[in-house]
Every structure is written in structure tokens, then in C-alpha cells.
Design a protein that fits this description.
mainly alpha, Growth Hormone, Chain: A, 17 helices, globular
Length: 395
């Protein structure tokens, strides 16, 4: 587990920095506008959102190493080509690179579900969420610092090299994606989507989307608040406080013996985010975002834990891919939603919009979870495979 988390941290840190690296290349290397850079970032993000379920399904069917080999080769070709591609071709290539990005995050989550017991899983997913927070703190910052010292093309090569190294390391480790008791279940075939992609899973995916929508909106609201106060240079410090608080919250959540429902964690996250808009300068904003940060990693880990419990072993790759797609969509839409609220009101409106989006997702998740039907009896195919099972395992 330690080796996997270390290697996947390298890959995830580089993946979180890829948008910044491409932005720097388009603006500084191609001498184009930030709008043009946003187009490349949107193409990459769209590919990431669409590629999650596709790669997850390929992992379920073809195995981990096959998918990692394909994605690593694609990343090698893309990042080596970035400095020589004209803008029009770069747009299409960025979409393809996102579609076939090394699936470091989904694979880590699958491996955690396979390598831990039910009692250990919540703590392990909390640690995985902390890893994600650290990657968001480190990755873009390193790219910005490097872009000031070397050419943007070299920075792009460095990001690509880190992604490739991380994907290669995961392939070398080849972590198990199914527990020993799940191997036979996987061999029995993939269950139909209607059996696992039901109301309960849709509730969790909705909350995954709502969580990242909130967090993306908060980032923009912080910048807008400090820009209005003439203190935008302090944004990095406030974002660092947000990240540290999230790491602390994730570690504490993993250490406690009892967990809270995902919808309750997300609802609390939304509630503590809305009042952050009352802060008017950077010292008070540092205090105001602590609550948001403290609940961010626990909410993300609860989402990952819920997906692992609801997804059968044979489709866990596709399920974690859907989770990644929902979170990518939330990150993509959170900033525009908060931006509209800021434009029509004040910077505090960004915090309010982000918090209300989280509350809406929490309420939707709660209502859908209550409608989730009890597990159905096994299908005829399952009955045949279950005849010899121990009676205590029959639902």
C-alpha cells in the first residue's frame, strides 16, 4: 500500500499540473491569449471526464497492465509532441490525451478496495483523499515556479515524464484490483448495469459531482474576494491554508472509529462554506476557509468508500471511472457557476453559490439514498454459482 500511494502520488501530482503546464505553454510559448489556453484546458478536461468510464471498463475486461501500457504510450507521444504542435492540432491532441490519461486515481481506489478489510477501508480512503489534496497543492505550484526559470516546452516535457513514470511504476507494482474472495465473482462475468448503476450509485455520483463543484467554486471565490480587496497576492497563502486544513481533516477522519453518512458530510461542507463570504481581507479569509478545508477530504473519502461498497468486483473499474468523471465535471462547472454569481452580485456570492451547490447535491443524495431499494434476490445465473456457498452469505 505504501509503495502504491507513493507512486500514484507522483502520477497524480503531475496530472493535476497538466492543465497549468499547457496553459503556460499556450500563453508563453505560443504567445496566445488566456482564452486560447482555456480552450486547450477545456479539451483536456473534457477528455478526462469522458475517458474515466471507458478506461475503467477496459481495466475490468483487459486487465490493469494492458490499459497502463496503452495510456503510457499515448502520454509519451503527446507530451513529446506538445512543443512542436500548432494550436489547432494541439486542441485535438489534448482531448485525446485526456481521454487516455494514465488512470492513477481510479486504480488507486480500486486497489484500496481490494487490499483492505471493511474496517480499514475508511481510513485508507481518507489517506487517499489526503494524497489528492497534497497533489493539488504541490503540482500547479511547481509548474508555475519552473515556468519562471525554464521554457514552457521543457516544463511540459517534465510534466509528461512524471505522468509516464507514475504510470510505469503502477504497472510494475501491478496492485491487485480484486480481493481474494472476489476473484471467482469476477470470473462469473460482468453484472448488468441495471443491477449496480441504480438509485444508490446515482446518489453517490451526484454527491461526488456536488463536492468538486463546491471546491472549484471556492477557489474562484477566494481569488475574487482578494482581488476586490486589493490583496490578490495573498491568494496562494489562503489556498495553502485551505489545503492544510483539508489534510488535517482527512487524517482526523481516518483516525476516528465511526463515520458519518456522505450526504451529511457534504451538507455540513456546504453550510460552513456559505459564511466564508463574510470575510473581507486575507487574515479573516484564512480563518473562514478552515471549515471548508477541514470537511473537504472527509467528504471525498466518504464518496470513494461508498462507490467501492456499491460496485460489484467485476465492474469496479467502470464505477470508479464514473466517479472520476463526475468529479471532473464538478471541477469544470464549479468555477463558471461561482463566476456567474460573482458577476451578478459580489464576491461573497461565489461562496454562497458554491455552498448552495453542495447543499443541493447533499439533499439530492439523501433523498435518492432513502429511495434505494433493498438488495434483490440473486438472478438465476447467480443462484447457480451460489448453490455451494455458505448459508451465512446468502442475503
Amino acid at each position: 500500500m505504501a509503495s502504491l500511494l507513493g507512486v500514484s502520488f507522483l502520477a497524480r501530482t503531475a496530472i493535476t499540473a497538466d492543465v497549468m503546464a499547457l496553459t503556460m505553454y499556450v500563453v508563453l510559448g505560443l504567445k496566445m491569449s488566456y482564452a486560447a489556453a482555456g480552450g486547450v484546458a477545456a479539451a483536456l478536461t473534457t477528455g478526462l471526464a469522458l475517458g474515466g468510464p471507458l478506461l475503467g471498463r477496459m481495466i475490468d475486461r483487459r486487465g490493469l497492465r494492458t490499459v497502463l501500457l496503452v495510456t503510457v504510450v499515448v502520454q509519451v507521444v503527446f507530451w513529446l509532441s506538445v512543443p512542436i504542435l500548432p494550436y489547432g492540432i494541439l486542441l485535438g491532441a489534448a482531448f485525446a490525451a485526456g481521454l487516455l490519461m494514465v488512470p492513477a486515481q481510479p486504480v488507486t481506489r480500486q486497489a484500496i478496495a481490494a487490499m483492505t478489510t471493511a474496517e480499514q477501508r475508511r481510513a485508507a480512503f481518507a489517506l487517499e483523499s489526503v494524497q489528492g489534496e497534497l497533489s493539488y497543492v504541490v503540482g500547479p505550484a511547481v509548474v508555475v515556479l519552473c515556468a519562471a526559470k525554464v521554457s514552457p516546452g521543457v516544463v511540459a516535457w517534465g510534466v509528461g515524464a512524471a505522468i509516464v513514470a507514475g504510470g510505469t511504476g503502477i504497472a510494475w507494482l501491478n496492485p491487485p484490483l480484486r480481493a481474494e474472495g472476489e476473484a471467482d465473482a469476477g470470473a462469473a462475468g460482468r453484472p448488468p448495469r441495471r443491477e449496480w448503476l441504480g438509485v444508490g450509485m446515482m446518489a453517490v455520483l451526484t454527491m461526488a459531482f456536488g463536492t468538486t463543484t463546491l471546491l472549484s467554486g471556492v477557489d474562484l471565490a477566494i481569488v475574487a474576494t482578494l482581488e476586490e480587496a486589493g490583496q490578490v497576492s495573498w491568494a496562494a497563502l489562503v489556498l495553502a491554508v485551505l489545503g492544510v486544513a483539508s489534510v488535517a481533516g482527512g487524517l482526523l477522519y481516518g483516525a476516528v472509529s465511526r463515520s458519518l453518512p456522505t450526504w451529511l458530510l457534504l451538507g455540513l461542507l456546504g453550510l460552513v462554506t456559505i459564511p466564508a463570504g463574510l470575510a473581507r481581507d486575507w487574515p479573516w479569509l484564512c480563518v473562514a476557509v478552515v471549515g471548508t478545508g477541514f470537511l473537504a477530504a472527509p467528504t471525498l473519502s466518504a464518496v470513494a468508500d461508498a462507490v467501492s461498497r456499491l460496485a460489484p468486483a467485476g465492474v469496479r473499474g467502470e464505477a470508479t471511472g464514473l466517479q472520476s468523471s463526475a468529479q471532473s465535471a464538478g471541477f469544470a462547472l464549479g468555477s463558471p457557476i461561482a463566476g456567474v454569481a460573482i458577476d451578478v452580485s459580489v464576491p461573497a456570492g461565489g461562496f454562497a453559490a458554491a455552498g448552495l451547490a453542495g447543499l443541493a447535491a447533499a439533499l439530492t443524495g439523501c433523498l435518492l439514498s432513502r429511495r434505494c431499494p433493498s438488495p434483490r434476490p440473486p438472478t438465476s445465473a447467480r443462484r447457480e454459482s451460489a448453490r455451494g456457498a455458505d448459508a451465512t452469505h446468502v442475503q
